[in-house]
Amino acid sequence: MAIYFWAFVVGGAICVMGQIMFDVFKLTPAHTLSTLVCLGAVLDGFGLYEPLIEFAGAGATVPITSFGNSLVHGAMAEAEKHGIIGVITGMFEVTSSGISAAIIFGFIGAVLFKPKG
Description:
The chain has one domain (about 1-110). The chain has six helices and no strands. The chain has helices spanning about 1-25, 30-45, 50-55, 60, 65-80, 85-110. α2 (about 30-45) crosses α5. About 20% of the residues are buried.
């Protein structure tokens, strides 16, 4: 039961940070998105994001900060195997399935339903 509470608190805190960026700092959605992705990447670079995932579960894996974590995590894993080339291929390898799924499901949704435009 506690995992649900901490997932809610951590995920909510990440969302609150994004909302503060919108409201207080008047950042655009693109700037807010980029900042949160970079935050996840930096936290993973320092080895802090994986413990956060273990602690909060979906509260840390669902928000956009997890995308930055995935980029760095994949790049570092492949760099150990293939050197500098692995940095580039690792980022694409780890995140390609999520991006591909978003494109495919977005296309299927557009075919099945009438988009408003």
